[in-house]
Design goal:
- The chain is built from 9 helices and 10 strands.
- By secondary structure, it is α/β, with parallel strands linked by helices.
- Helix 3 packs across helix 4, helix 3 runs parallel beside helix 5 and helix 8 crosses helix 9.
- The longest helix is centred in the last third of the chain and has 16 residues.
- The relative contact order is 0.19.
- It binds adenosine-5'-triphosphate.
- The site of adenosine-5'-triphosphate has 12 residues, from strand 2 and helix 1.
- Belongs to the ABC transporter superfamily.
Amino acid sequence: MINVDALTKTFKNVQALDSLSFQAKDGEITGLLGPNGAGKTTCLRIIYGLLQADTGKAEIEGVDANQNPIGARRNLGIFPDKFGLYERLTVREQVAYFAGLHGLKSTEQRQAVEKVIETLDIKELADRRTAGFSQGQRMKVALAQALVHSPKHLILDEPSRGLDVMSTRILRDVLREQRAQGTCILFSSHVMQEVAALCDRVVVMAKGKVAAEGTPQELCDMTGEQQLEDAFVKIIGTDEGIAA
Ligand SMILES: Nc1ncnc2c1ncn2[C@@H]1O[C@H](COP(=O)(O)OP(=O)(O)OP(=O)(O)O)[C@@H](O)[C@H]1O
């Protein structure tokens, strides 16, 4: 489980997070939905230990991400907002490198790399260097890096940005498979269809706070709307920055 407890973060005079609290449970896909600038990336970066919160804490399976980032990351697969790939490495080398960072060695590492290459159906890419890869191909490599150590928690920042329909479907299938295996999945998005299609629970964020949370049906019920899109607009007070 991921537990976000009263996180605050200020950049100079911008309050990015304002006492943000929510939980993402195992075996569920939790969507962090909010307009541009709502604080989604800031929140995810604190969870994966890249940023220090001013106050509050983020815990992965009870491990504090700020106090023990290495311990927290052991349990975490990260699909970051900018996936920098090592363009001189082949896909296989790259995924193996990440497996190594997570402590997988020799046979165990080789098996994990081959397994994730097979799961994501990227055998044809495996021995190519990633320089010049398309957005969808880069996404698959980033996903392979995130999954290679079979993490119990998976965090994805705007995972379907720039992807075509086929790549988006592959991504969704992988996330559903991971959920079926009990993985705790947290992803951010400002695309409503994506959230509606995938999420068990939605945390609607605006101005660094939780504006509402619940299942898509609960969000409709609490706003008296039939369509999720209308519910979101009512909760946030505007449709600016949210994509249908
Ligand atoms: N390093 C930084 N320095 C200054 N301001 C920052 C920094 N990182 C984030 N911010 C500000 O904090 C606020 C929240 O940004 P954040 O990137 O977390 O939002 P977001 O919900 O992920 O937005 P988007 O959907 O546009 O990616 C914004 O006002 C942003 O400009």
